[in-house]
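Repro case for the chain-ordering regression, as requested:
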Amino acid sequence: MIVLEVAVFLLVAAAGTAVALTRDPLNQAIVASFYGLVLGIMFLVFQAPDVALSQITVGAVALPLMILLALAKVRALEGGRGDDR
Amino acid sequence: MTPTLRRRVFLAAAVVAAALLLWGLTGLPPFGVYEGPYGDVLNQVAVAERKATNVVASVTFDYRGVDTLGEEFILFAAVIGVAILLRARRDEREEPPDEDAADRRAPGTSNAVRVLGLALVGPVVLFGVYVVTHGHLTPGGGFQGGVVLATGALLVYLSGEYVTLRRVSPEVLLDSAESVGAAGYVLVGLLGVAAGATFLANVLPLGQPGALLSAGTIPLINLAVGLEVAGGFILLLSEFLEQTLVIRRPGEVT
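-- result from build under test --
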């Protein structure tokens, strides 16, 4: 069990670092989604299934989706300004 | 500030932060050791007192029910805030979603995504309903189940089109689900007052631990929260999608 706990901690640390090191926001949203999933697995390993369920639905699905949609809107706006110049 | 200087400032700050964090970690109790009295007391008495096998649910929806009521209204207010922020402005116009445009730029959704999404809608909705209705028995509850239900709506969008999502979840339905859910929590609380006890007192018959109909008001509150969260999240999703797909500012490319 201790091996599993250490492994999931390392995975969380690696995924968190990957989110911070990803520069492109579009890629970052996908990496953040993976990070949300890994955090959910961590909560599950540490016997907090209630929190794991919330974490996976919010962190791995809802939050990246909001980021993606906001990015799509921002890019559409930037494209429009580019045409005016 | 040059990049080198910035990196040095960051490294110095990171070392200090890491040292403080490690210092704090050494003061924590050993892993798995719990020193507060309340958790142990709850583990002893909660199932006998409330007949809910998920002790977390008896804390969030009964012993600390008022806190959760506050949290529910935070979400309620947040969703309303987003809906107000994302409404169409005067200089914006609504256009048919990209999918209907003849010259749409984005490639269509692949058949694999559509089929997988369609196959998942049913199981995901069923799982959401299960998580909401069994919140007092197994891990989960209104919040988690509500978000899972909202994920079902997202799958409808992924496997169909934006118009399909609007058809299966008209705004008036989402608005009423959110409001009825939020109001339902308060009404369940008022049951306690009506029965001569305090607000949110668990006055309904408790039943047997492990039965679907048990734990008094807890499953009712879970239903209310599930309704509110599912409605709120789908509303949030629709508002964002509408902003991205339908509403156009002057000069914005489609």
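Ordering looks correct now. Chain A has one domain: 2-84.
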